[in-house]
Amino acid sequence: MQRLITHSCGHDQSHGINGHFAADSDRQASRLSRQKCRSCYDAANAVRAAEDSAAIADLALVPLTGSEKQVAWAETLRTKRIAAVRKRSPKTVECLASIADAKWWIDNRRVPDATIIASALPPAPIA
Ligand SMILES: [Zn+2]
After folding, report:
1. The pairing of beta strand 2-6 with beta strand 12-16
2. Which residue from 29, 42, 59, 89 puts its CA 20 to 30 A from 23's CA?
3. Residue 28 pLDDT greater than 70, yes or no
4. Are 127 and 99 within 8 A, CB to CB?
5. How far is the CA of 103 from the centre of ligand 1 (A)?
6. pLDDT for 122 beyond 80
7. 44-61: per-residue pLDDT in tens?
8. If you average pLDDT over every residue of the chain, what do you get?
9. What pTM was estimated for this model as a whole?
């Protein structure tokens, strides 16, 4: 059933809402109303992507290897990841900038930044 939802950004958007029980539909409608509408969500993402690109524009990154589709996806993931990691661990950036395998960026997209940073640095000397 199509329902007009007023989003947190103030815009109205029509959504297909399906639920077995009325409470399910109401819960779904309520959840959607707490989110931004599609256009505002996309606009915020575009701004974030532009900020990430600017934050790493000075870095020399190796060209990615893989299928055309993998490379395009991995470019986005790499930009976002390096921009985020750079703030916390500038040393890790050098290591990440040399990873050319698009598949690696895709396979590790859900790995937390802290884990990536920990695995890129040599282990701390044992005191
Ligand atoms: Zn909006």
Report:
1. antiparallel
2. 42
3. yes
4. no
5. 34
6. no
7. 999 999 999 999 999 999
8. 92
9. 0.74
> Ligand 1: distance of its center to the CA of 83 in Å?
26
Beta bridge partners of 6: 12
- Ligand 1 midpoint to CA 39 (Å): 6
Q: Where are the beta strands (DSSP E) in 7-96?
A: 12-16
* 64 neighbors 102 (Cβ within 8 angstroms): yes
For 61-96, the pLDDT digits (tens) are: 999 999 999 999 999 999 999 999 998 998 899 899
DSSP 10: S
Distance 40 CA to ligand 1 centre (A): 4
Residue carrying the six token digits 């993998």? 70
**82 CA distance to ligand 1 centroid (A)?**
29
Distance 5 CA to ligand 1 centre (A): 11
**For 90, how many CA atoms within 13 A lie in the half-sphere containing its CB?**
2
CA 34 to ligand 1 center in whole angstroms: 11
